[in-house]
Specification:
- This protein is mostly helical.
- It contains five helices and no strands.
- It has helices at about 1-25, 35-75, 80-105, 115-135, 140-145.
- The longest helix is centred in the middle third of the chain and has 41 residues, at about 35-75.
- Keywords: Membrane, Transmembrane, Transmembrane helix.
- InterPro entries: GPCR_2-like_7TM, GPCR_2_secretin-like.
- It is a multi-pass membrane protein.
- This is G-protein coupled receptors family 2 profile 2 domain-containing protein.
Amino acid sequence: MLHFFYLATFCWMCLEGIQLFRMVVLVFNTNFKFIYMLAGGYGVPAVIVAITALVNIFFFLITVWKLAEKFSSLNPDLDNLQKIKAFTITAVAQLCIVRTMWIFGCFQFEKGTIAMSYLFTLFGSLQGVMLFVMHCLFSKQVSHTLY
C-alpha cells in the first residue's frame, strides 16, 4: 500500500504540473476530463504496483520451490509430511523476517525513531543469519568439510 500511495502522489504531482502547463501555455481547453485524471493518478500506480507484486510473488514461489528441493536433499530420510512441515515453517519464517524488517524501516522517517532504526538493523541482520544457517550450516558440502 505504501508503494501505491507514493506512486499515486508522484502521478498526481505530474498531472498537476501538466495541468499548470496547459493553463499557462495553451490557455484554451485547459481542463482534463475527470476520468483521465483518475486513470493517470490512480490507474498508473495500480498497474505498476500490480506488476511489481506479481514479480515478487513469482520470485517468492521460485524461492519456496528451491527451499523444498534443498530440504529434500538435506534430509532424505524425512517423510513427505515432515518435509512439508519443515519447508512451510522455513518459508513463513523468512517471509516474516523480511516483511518485519521493512515494517520497521517505514517508521524511520520521524524524529526520535532510534528504536525503529535498531529494530530495522536487527531484523536485517537476522535475515542474513537465517540465510547463512540455511545455505551454509544445513548444506551437506559445508557440514562434511567441517567435521
